[in-house]
Write a structure and sequence with these properties.
Chains A, B: It holds the Pfam family HTH_5. Chains A, B: This is Transcriptional regulator. Chains A, B: Keywords: DNA-binding, Transcription, Transcription regulation. Chains A, B: InterPro entries: ArsR-like_HTH (IPR011991), HTH_ArsR_DNA-bd_dom (IPR001845), HTH_MetalResp_TranReg (IPR051081), WH-like_DNA-bd_sf (IPR036388), WH_DNA-bd_sf (IPR036390). The structure is a homodimer. The first copy, chain A, is α+β, with helices and mostly antiparallel strands. Chain A has one domain (about 15-105): Winged helix-like DNA-binding domain superfamily/Winged helix DNA-binding domain (Arc Repressor Mutant, subunit A), CATH 1.10.10. Chain A is about 45% helix and about 15% strand. Chain A has helices at about 20-30, 30-45, 60-70, 90-95, 100-105, and strands at about 5, 50, 75-80, 85-90. Chain A has a 4-stranded antiparallel β-sheet. The interface of A and B includes residues 97 and 104 of A.
Chain lengths: ~110, ~110
């Protein structure tokens, strides 16, 4: 299992489930690039390396968007080797704000 | 019916239903004061004058928040005499992004 190779998330802060705030999640999702990241993660139903996203922004802008999503509690990021991987925190979001993520993904 | 007394919305721009954008709605809802306004409107199930909201902000800040909600398509504003009234655009939001408003209102 690839998860076994994961390095501890030493430098990456993630809010605990009960620290996830509605305002922060809504704000994180209110950007088209970040929505696109979330949609790709939801479609993939799997973890994805940041580099696998084909985003029309610079690397540093992309890193910023992933950080906003992580700090809001929308995604979890961790390292596998030198790749930073991301996955949606679907269960945590569903527990905190039921139906929100699916409503966002279902819109338009 | 009080609606008969409504003055045309001459100065207040409202996006049409199909102009309502997910990112704008999420952004509008990502502020605690604006969430509070939306919750009060949802609880009231009725139109409310802006002055009826007891918000911990200045009048101009309050006006700003109502404008952000209106321009995003979350609320409709109109005049009755000299009172600016607001109501949630529940049907429009439900048509454009089903389940989103209720998920936001149900969170926390």
């Amino acid at each position: 299992m690839s998860r076994n190779k994961a390095v501890p998330e030493r430098r990456l802060h993630h809010p605990d489930r009960d620290e996830i705030r509605l305002e922060s999640v809504l704000s994180a999702l209110s950007d088209p690039i970040r929505l696109r990241i979330v949609r790709e993660l939801a479609r993939g139903h799997d973890d994805m390396a940041c580099i696998a996203f084909d985003l029309p922004v610079s690397k540093s802008t992309s890193t910023h968007h992933f950080r906003v999503l992580r700090e809001a509690g929308v995604i979890r990021q961790y390292y596998e080797g030198t790749s930073r991987m991301s996955r949606l925190r679907e269960d945590d979001l569903e527990a905190r704000m039921p139906g929100l993520l699916s409503a966002v993904l279902g819109a338009e």
